[in-house]
Amino acid sequence: MSVIKAFLFDLDGVIVDTAIYHYRAWKRLANELGFDISEAFNERLKGVSRMESLDLILEHGGLTLPEETRTELAAKKNDWYLELVSRMTPDDILPGVPQFFSQVRKAGLLAALGSVSKNAPLIIERIGMQDAFDAIIDGNKITRGKPDPEVFLKGADELEVSPAECVVFEDAVAGVEAGKRGGMFVVGIGSPDVLTQADMVAPSLQELTVEQVLQKAQ
Fold first, then answer.
1. Fewer C-beta within 10 Å: the chain N or C terminus?
2. Same domain, 102 and 81
3. Which residues make up the binding site for Mg(2+) (predicted)?
């Protein structure tokens, strides 16, 4: 086994929970188009890129729209979403995250963000965690969304470590698959019934210590 040198974190559902803001913005868009989406349907959009999410929603509403209209709708949803996340503060950081990141630093590990969201830098700034990461990979730096491993492989690359020296923290099925496809040890944040591909699962970072993760991963 390789010695673990770096932890790579998804943003949404691991560090903050912006899923409710995504849901409100997508729901508003669906309502404007004449139909509705449920919270259960919204689960399918987690870890999926903006345009792919829009396509799933349009399919759900039985709509086929030209490329230009789809681009406009995606931009409109993003504007509504940004209105909501721009009000975020450090209070929106999920319980246990600051303590876990403190352990990461004490253990001498590198940390990277691996998010498909193009808004990740804005959120990290709003919650005051810019200094917590040695590298930030977001939707602006990648061409393929999860479950493609590109976002995590780029993270490893920027940190100058091999995939085998990395641990990924993910709450979405697509993200867990991306980490595994990238050849990394994956910690699922959520339910073991859902994140079946993960190497280990915890309800949140609050229920984990860096030592527990390293014992399992190396």
1. N
2. no
3. 10, 12, 170-171
Per-residue pLDDT of the chain (218 residues; tens, 9 = 90+): 579 999 999 999 999 998 889 999 999 999 999 999 999 999 888 778 889 999 999 999 999 999 999 999 999 999 999 999 999 999 999 999 999 999 999 999 999 999 988 889 999 999 999 999 999 999 999 999 899 999 999 999 999 999 999 999 999 999 999 999 999 999 999 999 999 999 999 999 999 999 999 999 98
From the annotation, which residues make up the binding site for substrate? 10-12, 26, 45-50, 53, 77, 115-119, 146
Name beta bridge partners: 9. 113, 169
Burial class for 131, CB neighbours closer than 10 Å (0-12, 13-18, 19+):
exposed
74 lies in the same domain as 102: no
Give the residue from 55, 85, 115 where a domain finishes: 85
Measured in Å, how far apart are the chain's first and last C-alpha atoms? 6
> How many distinct structural domains can be found in the chain?
2
Q: Is residue 54 part of a domain?
A: yes
Residues labelled catalytic: 10, 12
